[in-house]
Every structure is written in C-alpha cells, then in structure tokens.
C-alpha cells in the first residue's frame, strides 16, 4: 500500500511539475521583434489613430498577404492593444469565413458574387457586405531561361505558351518579338497555380481579354488549360521558376523582386513594351471603372488597355466588410485598421513590397466608405 | 580457416578438391574488397560518363557490387554459396540504400536548421515579422504545440486507458468485440479526415471559433486508438497470478485493477502514452484546418487562434522565401528534437519500469 | 509497433478473473470484510460504468465521424453533375458542381504501389539485416534508430522532400528516361521532378521504418529450433532464411506492409509539398501530374467555397476513409489468422 501511495504521489508531483513548468514557460517568451526586424518597423506609426482593442481576425487572399504583413506590423507597432491576425487562406475561404461570422473582414481578389452578397445579410445586421478596393499590383510573368534577363512577349504568345501550343524557347513567335536575344533550344515549362487563386483569375481574364483567339479557356480561379506543371501558392510557383531552367509563370511582382526573377515586358500595342512595375500598374488601374452599386466599390479592370506605359496584367484586391452591422466588439478596431490601410501612409508603404497604390480618385472614395462603416 | 584452399580456386576453377568435404571459399576480406572495387567502378563510370547525379553513381556501384560478388562466388564456391552471397549483398545494399535518405534527412535538418536556431529563435514569436526578413522565432508555436498536445493527452489518455481496462478486465460480448474492431478501424483514420470531422462538427455545426482546443480534439481522436492498443498489450502482460492473489485477499475488483494491475503495467502504459504523444505532436493536417494559425503568442488554447510547430514549419515553407526556409528548417529541428526527447524518455521509462515477466 | 505485436489471444486473465473476481469473494461470508465488500460493489459498479462508458465513447466518436462524413458527402454527391467515379475535373465550387475522383484514385493507387514496391523489399531486407546479418553489437542500436525514425513528423519529410529530394532526383529521372523512356511509363519530359514517382519514393522512405520494425518483431519470433535444424542440415544462411524464417514471417510481413500501405494512402503534407498536381492522368509516372485524396483535400481546402466545395472534399475524404478501412481491416484479418496458425504450432 505504501508503495502504491508513493506512486500516486509521484504521479501527482510529476503532473504538477509539468503544469508549473508550462506556466513558467508561458512567461518567458516575447512578441517583441523590434530588435531583429529590418529597421524600418514602427517608423510610419505616427499618423495611426488607434481605436478598439482585442483580437482582430481576418483571412483571405494570399495576393495581399505581403501588404497585410507590412500593415499589420506597422499598425500593431502603433496600437499595442490590438492584435491583428490575417491568415492568407485564399479568397474563397476568406469570404466563407467572413460569411460564417468567424472573421471581422475578409481579403478577396475578386468582388463578391451576387449570391455571396445575399448570404452576407445574415452576418451584417440589416445590411450587406461591400467590396472595398485596398491594394493593387502588377502580376508579373517571371521566367528562367539560362541567364537571359530581358524578354518581351505579347498577349497572344503568352497565351500560346501557357496553353502548351508554343513549347520551345527558340520558337519563331518568341524570336520575332525579341530580335537579338539569344534564345536557347530549351523546352518551355509553364507553371500554374495548383490551388484556386485570384491571381490565376486575373491572369486568365487578361489572356481572354487581350488574346481571345489564342486562349480558348474560360477565365477563372482554377486553371482550366491542360499541360504545364503546377505548384501551390505564388511562393510555390516562383520558387519553381527559380529552380527550373526553362520555366515561366505568373505571380505578384513582390515575389519576382524578392527572388530576383526577371520578368517579361509586355507588348500591349503602346509604343514601347511595358515593364511590370508598380507605377505602370497604377496607370492601368486608374483606367478601371467602378461597377459596384451604392457603397460597394467593385472595380472593372481594363485588361486590354493600350495606354502608354500601362501594365495591363493587374490585380486589385478588396477588403470585404459589412456596410452596416459589423460585429460590435470588433467594429472600432476594424474601422481604425482599415482607415490606416486607406490612408496616405498606408498606401505609400506598399511600394516597397511590389504593390501599387490606389489611384487618387479611387482612394478618396475608399476613405469615405471606410469612415462610414458602422 | 580456409587458408589451405584460399589460393587455389583461381587456378582450379570451381571444382572442389576430391576427397575434401570443404568447399572452396572466397577469402574473408572478399566482400570488403568487392565493396571498395565497386565503389571505385561506380565513381569511375559516373565521372567518365559525366553523370551528374550522385544517386546514379551509388546505384551503379551497388549493381556492380551485387553482380560482381555473385559471379565471383559462382565461379569459386558453387551456386548455393553464390546465392547466399547474393542474398547477403542484397541485404547489405538494401540497408545502405535505406540508410542514405534517412541519414540525409537528419543531416540536412540539422545543418540547415542550425542556421537560424538560437536563443532568440526559441523565445520570440513571429509578431510583426515579414516573410523575407531574417529573425523572428518559434516560441508561440512551441507554446501552441505544448498546450494542444497536452489537452489532447488529457482527453485521450483517460478514455484510452479506461477503454483498454474495459477490454482486458471486463470485456466480453458484442460490445467489447465492437470496441476492439472499431479501435482497429480508428488507428487507420487519416489525420486529415479527423480534422475534417472536427471542422464540420465543432466549427461549422456547433459554431465555435478556431482555437487550439479544436485542434486538440482532432489530435485526441488520432491518439485514442494508439493509447488503447498499447495499454491493452501492457495489461495483458500482467500475470494473472497477481490479480488472483489480490482478489483472494478479498480486495474488490476495482481496487485490484487500480492498485495491482495498473501499477504493475504503469511503465509500459506510460511508454505507450508518450509514444502516442510523440506521434500526434507532428501532425500537421488537422492543425491547418482547425487552429487558424497566428504570429503572436497566445497562451489561451480555448480562445483565439494559436500556432503549432508543425503548422509553423508548413507556414514558413509556404511563404517560400530564403529567410522563411531557414526558419522552417530550424522549427523542423526543434520539432524533431521534441519528438525524439519524448521517445527517449518513453523508452527510458519502459526500460526502468519494465515488468519482469516474459520478454 | 505495439499495435501489431501479435497479441496472444485467449489470455486467461479476463475470463479467469471474471469468475473468481465477480462471484467468489462475494460468496465468502466473512464478517470483517462486509464493509469493504459493500464499497467494493459500488466501486466496482462505478468503475465498470466508467470503463464501459469510455469504450462506448469511442464507438460514438467513430459513429459520429462516419455519420458526419456520410451526411455531408451524400449532400455533395446528390448535387454533383458529373460522375463521381469517372469525372476528370474538380469544379466543386462551380454552380452546378462537377467533380470526380478518377484522378485522385489513380494517383493514390499508383503512388502507393510505387511506395510499396520500393519499401517492402527494402524493409524486409533491413529487418533481416537486423535479425540475421548485422554484427550482433550493431543490431540493437540500428533497430533503435529505425524505431526513432518512425517518429519523425511527416511535415519534416515533406520539407526535406520539397527542398532536398526533388532537386536531387532530376538526374536520376533523366537517366531513367534515357534507358527506359521507350516504355512510356518512365518517360520524362518536365523540368522538375515533382511527379507521382517522387511521391512514391518519399512515401517509401516514410513507411520504411514502420514496416521494418513490425517485420523485425516477427522475424525475431521464428523458433530458434527451426533455424538450427536447417543449419544442422548444412543449409547456407540464405537457405535458412528462405526455408524457415520467411515462411514463418510471411503473414506478419504482409500485415506490416498493409499497415505501411494504410499510412501511405492517408499521407497528406509530405505529398502536398512534392507533387505538382493536375486533373488528368499522365501516362508517365515520372512526369508531373495527378493527385492523391489527402493531398487534394489539403490543397483544395482553402479555396473550397460554398457548402458544396467542402462537402465534395469530404466525399473524397469518405472514399479515402473507406479505402484505409478496408486495407487496415485486411491487415488485422491476416494477423488474426496468423495467431491461430502459430498458436496451433506452439
């Protein structure tokens, strides 16, 4: 009996030790990374108006993840009471989680569909969800062909490459667009996204709009064409392009910049081929029309623009929130956070991550809308 | 021992010497020589043919080794011995083939993981870090893993333990048969299916939020059958004489189980539980579906999202930047260390507390 | 390992105790124990209730899993416009949804076959190596290390597979293409080795430890006498193994392989990191393309929108569930048969 009791005691002691050890452990970590971050943290914190506190959950588009990371860092540096968690789950899941009332707002690459707007009436008391454009950016077409660092293509060639109709880098069509470039006899390895994505959506919309005869597939979030290889996420495809000689793929400009991947210049019909830069993308976005009704600011992008220096493969991502009837406990924080995103400061920090700031006229409307959220 | 015949075979071929029962044998150093020779041949062919993959070199060397020793042995020792040698060399080659990737896995993880691993990495979270920045840490994920695994154990261990007791000490009839069968079925549940179940049940249907606890429940489902099975084995090892002795003294059955059977098997049970813990600590799929993920420290597993070590590895791998790859490797190293320590402790307990019966 | 250590069925303990435990002490009219007996009865009831309750809980959980998956799956299947078994696309988010598991089934089966073809012979060889070939002093530590490797989390295998294995396999694939490309099965066109064959190799590495450690346990139990008898007849080591070890261990090895197969079928993360998925069946196993159930669930899950998107995935999860159930059930059956067999011999 004594032995058993001792065993019991020992078990209790061991349990207590584990629990107290865990408690001790929970006290010794730190969220403060200011020491190790790149040095530009918390500098832009000056103009942020902090309101509300607690944990702000959001999820959605992975295309705006890098922008969101930056915003969240700057915002939480200024507003310590609010924890913002943005999870890049993809637009579809983001909208769904928002519609289930799991998150305060969603990030999405495409505007809400009518049935989603209808569904939103359940979470938004007496109101519905609206699209707020927040960040735009060029979708770069990155390539890896030996050490070639400059390549010009037009929509038709691009469509044929991604449809596996043009399969070699020394194809006549590519040669004609790049006189003087040394194009090797190398198989083209087009990579597309294996997950459904707004980047794919915008890219295929561009192909369909600018080269309808060469791109027979329906544009959409899922890749419809056959052939080619796939990888998960923009990070996935861009790292494949880095690894595989002969590869070409599409992803947000920031992935090209951070991976030092050369990008294709587009021959749009303007005088000179257009480079994928944030400025050129801003130019293309300013050609967009607002098609949303009421407070909804859904945009219609001009993919077939021939304007001088406008880079047509762009993507505008939205934040989705309720026009009225946002969840009371997170409303203040949501508004304060979105206000920061739409502000001059919020928009101007984007450039360093390869995103394009909203053109002024759209930005003004966005600010009005955000202020009116309730 | 075969010195006498050692130098003969080459001359006389395969014929055994008349009048001797002993067959000619290859010298004892032959396998080593073959191995060395084939390695040289492999490298030579690889270099000459300009094959750029080391795997090919290895395969060529292995092929040369197996064939070479088979032919040599057939010539010298006869077919039966040659077959034996063939089997031996195949077994060795297979062993080496298998060891290479496993060693490479550990080596790569340690090598690449140690780059970002330091004290700051262990006690900082990822708050405010951008993907392509170096720095940040894994602390929030460690906390998440500890809490989720702890909760899962707190749910699964008692249920598993009691079920095993039921099966071994009481179990009879249809119910016990059904439980046994379904425990077997449950061991086969893919982790992602367990995740889907909790998601549709707890988060979509009962409308709870993402939390560490949701993940812990999925982990508990995966853990239960493992605990049941290992505890069952251990209880069965407890000699019946002990139970009978206790019962003969008039001790009620439940006390017999608590005071005699369990303490006897406690070492094995603890081992089983720890191995089960080690197993679920590395589960990624259900965590990805249920815990949401977070960059900041959250000590409360019942509210708000958390992170966890496997999730962290996945998240950093998905980010696809050099700095995030470094973090992924470092976190993988931490995760392996965690699992290995659990394993070692479990085996330590097993050795220390092993029932003195049977094997 | 403990899951499969052949459990010696009909252990007298439960039965023996039942009779002596439940009836005998109660029948003894011993006054001083009356009190203890009283509490004992209540205690027994509580304890029995608790442990039976735990068992029932397990059953309830299983039923809930099967029920939930089935309900949601049937929901998706009734809305499905395509044939669930033969459709080559996965447009579950579209309206009306069209999706089918043909590609997933093919990919899962092919990658598992590759994994088994690679892993089983090697695992048997390693198990034999540990029990019969390795120097005695080494065999213990080697077995120990192999067991530890079974505990490495799959995400780590995935990380290693994606960042280390894939780049290193390219040369091998080109080589295979040079010599076996004419078979079409081993043709290699793409620039990155992210194919079902890569998945197979990675899965093989992952299930190697579990198959090894179970087979090893079985080989260890070969009666010493069998082996010594064979040796005494002048058999070589290989003949001993072929004539006494392998026949004895055959069913054990089969069930070990089934367990490994069950694991390979359901593996998620490691597959998702090394495969370049597509919705068609590629004739060559070296070329990128295809998919597996678990991988598809993990990678399509985030963008699965609407009720149907997730339910379609749950339907495919149910198929996976049934497949692993059958495989594991078969493994158990083989083990059970073996028990009778060895029991009769012992």
UniProtKB/TrEMBL annotation, chain A:
Record carries keyword Transport: yes
GO MF entry, a single one: phosphate ion binding
Stretch forming the signal peptide: 1-24
One annotated Gene Ontology cellular component of this protein: ATP-binding cassette (ABC) transporter complex
Domain of life: Bacteria
CDD domains registered for this protein in UniProt: PBP2_PstS
Residue ranges occupied by any PBP domain in the UniProt entry: 53-344
Gene Ontology biological-process entries: phosphate ion transmembrane transport
Keywords: Phosphate transport, Signal, Transport
Name listed for the protein in its UniProt record: Phosphate-binding protein
Automatic annotation (TrEMBL), chain B:
Record-annotated membrane-spanning stretches: 29-49, 55-76, 88-107, 149-168, 180-204, 210-228, 260-281, 328-350
Keyword annotations from UniProtKB, A to Z: Cell membrane, Membrane, Phosphate transport, Transmembrane, Transmembrane helix, Transport
Domain of life: Bacteria
One Gene Ontology biological process: phosphate ion transmembrane transport
GO molecular function ontology, one term from the record: phosphate transmembrane transporter activity
InterPro entries linked: MetI-like (IPR000515), MetI-like_sf (IPR035906), Phosphate_PstA (IPR005672), Phosphate_transprt_permease (IPR051408)
Compartment annotation: Cell membrane
Gene Ontology, cellular component aspect: plasma membrane
Membrane association type: Multi-pass membrane protein
Region (Disordered): 1-24
Stretches assigned to the ABC transmembrane type-1 domain: 142-346
Family per record: Belongs to the binding-protein-dependent transport system permease family. CysTW subfamily.
Function (record text): Part of the binding-protein-dependent transport system for phosphate; probably responsible for the translocation of the substrate across the membrane.
Protein name: Phosphate transport system permease protein PstA
Organism in which the protein naturally occurs: Streptomyces palmae
């Amino acid at each position: 009996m004594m032995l058993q009791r001792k065993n019991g005691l020992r078990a209790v002691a061991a349990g207590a030790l584990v629990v107290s050890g865990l408690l001790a452990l929970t006290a010794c970590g730190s969220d403060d990374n200011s020491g190790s971050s790149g040095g530009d943290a918390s500098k832009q914190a000056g103009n942020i108006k902090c309101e509300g506190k607690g944990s702000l959950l959001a999820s959605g588009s992975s295309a705006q993840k890098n922008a969101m990371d930056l915003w969240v860092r700057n915002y939480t540096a200024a507003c310590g009471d609010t924890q913002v968690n943005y999870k890049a789950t993809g637009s579809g899941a983001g909208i769904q989680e928002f519609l289930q009332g799991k998150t305060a707002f969603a990030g999405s690459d495409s505007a809400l569909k009518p049935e989603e707007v209808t569904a939103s009436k359940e979470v938004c008391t007496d109101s519905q969800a609206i699209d707020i454009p927040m960040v735009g950016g060029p979708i770069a077409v990155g390539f890896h062909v030996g050490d070639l660092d400059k390549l010009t293509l037009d929509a038709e060639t691009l469509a044929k490459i991604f449809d596996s109709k043009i399969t070699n880098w020394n194809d006549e069509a590519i040669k004609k667009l790049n006189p003087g470039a040394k194009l090797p006899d190398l198989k083209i390895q087009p990579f597309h996204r294996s997950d459904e994505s707004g980047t794919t959506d915008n890219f295929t919309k561009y192909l369909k709009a600018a080269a309808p005869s060469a791109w027979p597939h329906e544009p959409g979030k899922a890749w419809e064409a056959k052939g080619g290889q796939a990888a998960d996420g923009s990070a996935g495809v861009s790292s494949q392009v880095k690894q595989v000689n002969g590869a070409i793929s599409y992803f947000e400009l920031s992935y090209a910049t951070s991976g030092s991947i050369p990008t294709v210049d587009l021959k749009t019909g303007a005088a000179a081929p257009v480079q994928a830069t944030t400025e050129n993308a801003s130019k293309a976005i300013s050609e967009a029309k607002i098609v949303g009704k009421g407070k909804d600011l859904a945009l219609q992008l001009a993919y077939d623009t021939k304007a001088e220096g406008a880079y047509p493969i762009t993507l505008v991502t939205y934040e989705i929130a309720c026009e009225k009837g946002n969840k009371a406990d997170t409303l203040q924080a949501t508004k304060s956070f979105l206000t920061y995103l739409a502000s001059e400061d919020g928009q101007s920090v984007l450039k360093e991550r390869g995103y394009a700031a909203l053109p002024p006229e759209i930005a003004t409307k966005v600010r009005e809308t955000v202020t009116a959220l309730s | 021992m075969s010195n006498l015949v050692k130098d003969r075979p080459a001359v006389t071929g395969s014929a055994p010497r008349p009048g001797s029962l002993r067959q000619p044998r290859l010298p004892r150093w032959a396998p080593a020589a073959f191995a060395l020779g084939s390695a040289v041949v492999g490298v030579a062919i690889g270099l000459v043919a300009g094959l750029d993959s080391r795997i090919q070199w290895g395969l060529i060397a292995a092929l040369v080794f197996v064939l070479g020793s088979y032919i040599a042995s057939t010539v010298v020792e006869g077919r039966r011995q040659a077959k034996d040698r063939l089997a031996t060399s195949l077994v060795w080659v297979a062993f080496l083939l298998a060891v290479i990737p496993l060693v490479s896995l550990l080596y790569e993880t340690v090598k690449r993981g140690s780059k970002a691993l330091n004290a700051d990495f262990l006690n900082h979270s990822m708050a405010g870090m951008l993907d392509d920045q170096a720095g940040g840490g894994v602390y929030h994920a460690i906390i998440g893993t500890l809490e989720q695994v702890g909760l899962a154990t707190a749910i699964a261990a008692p249920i598993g333990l009691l079920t095993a007791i039921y099966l071994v000490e009481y179990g009879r009839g249809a119910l016990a048969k059904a439980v046994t069968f379904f425990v077997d079925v449950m061991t086969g549940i893919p982790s992602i299916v367990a995740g889907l179940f909790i998601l549709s049940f707890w988060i979509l249907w009962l409308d709870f939020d993402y939390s560490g606890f949701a993940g812990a429940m999925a982990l508990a489902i995966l853990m239960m059958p493992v605990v049941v099975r290992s505890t069952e084995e251990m209880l069965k090892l407890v000699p019946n004489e002990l139970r009978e002795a206790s019962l003969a003294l008039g001790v009620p059955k439940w006390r017999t189980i608590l005071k005699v059977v369990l303490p006897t098997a406690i070492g094995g049970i603890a081992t089983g539980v720890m191995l089960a813990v080690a197993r679920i600590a590395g589960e990624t799929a259900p965590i990805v579906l249920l815990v949401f993920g977070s960059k900041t420290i959250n000590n409360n597993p019942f509210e708000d999202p958390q992170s966890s070590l496997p999730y962290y590895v996945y998240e950093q791998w998905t980010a696809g930047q050099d700095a995030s790859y470094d973090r992924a490797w470092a976190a993988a190293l931490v995760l392996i260390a965690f699992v290995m320590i659990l394993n070692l402790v479990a085996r330590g307990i097993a050795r220390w507390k092993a029932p003195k019966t049977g094997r | 390992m403990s899951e499969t250590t052949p459990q010696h069925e009909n252990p007298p303990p439960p039965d023996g105790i039942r009779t002596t435990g439940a009836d005998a002490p109660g029948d003894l009219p011993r006054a001083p124990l009356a009190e203890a007996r009283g509490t004992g009865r209540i205690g027994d009831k509580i304890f029995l209730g608790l442990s039976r309750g735990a068992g029932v809980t397990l059953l309830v959980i299983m039923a809930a899993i099967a029920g939930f998956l089935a309900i949601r799956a049937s929901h998706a299947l009734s809305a499905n416009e395509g044939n669930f078994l033969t459709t080559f696309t996965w447009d579950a988010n579209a309206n009306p949804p069209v999706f089918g598991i043909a590609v997933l089934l093919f990919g899962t089966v092919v990658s598992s076959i590759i994994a088994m073809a690679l892993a089983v012979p090697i695992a048997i060889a390693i198990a034999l190596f540990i029990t019969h070939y390795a120097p005695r002093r080494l065999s213990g530590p080697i077995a120990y290390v192999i067991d530890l490797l079974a505990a490495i989390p799959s995400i780590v295998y995935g990380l290693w597979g994606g960042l280390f294995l894939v780049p290193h396999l390219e040369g091998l694939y080109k080589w295979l293409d040079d010599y076996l490309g004419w078979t079409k099965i081993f043709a290699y066109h793409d620039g990155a080795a992210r194919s079902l064959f890569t998945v197979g190799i990675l899965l093989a590495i992952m299930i190697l430890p579990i198959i090894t450690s179970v087979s090893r346990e079985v080989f260890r139990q070969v009666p010493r006498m069998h082996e010594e008898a064979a040796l005494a007849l002048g058999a070589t080591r290989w003949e001993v193994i072929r004539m006494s070890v392998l026949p004895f261990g055959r069913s054990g090895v089969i069930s070990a392989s089934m367990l490994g197969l069950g694991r390979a079928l359901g593996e998620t993360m490691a597959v998702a990191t090394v495969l370049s998925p597509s919705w068609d069946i590629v004739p060559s196993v070296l070329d990128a393309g295809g998919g597996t159930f678990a991988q598809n669930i993990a990678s399509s899950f985030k963008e699965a929108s609407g009720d149907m998107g997730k339910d379609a995935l749950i339907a495919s999860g149910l198929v996976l569930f049934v497949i692993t159930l059958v495989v594991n059930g078969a493994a158990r059956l083989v083990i059970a048969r073996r028990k009778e067999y060895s029991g009769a011999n012992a």
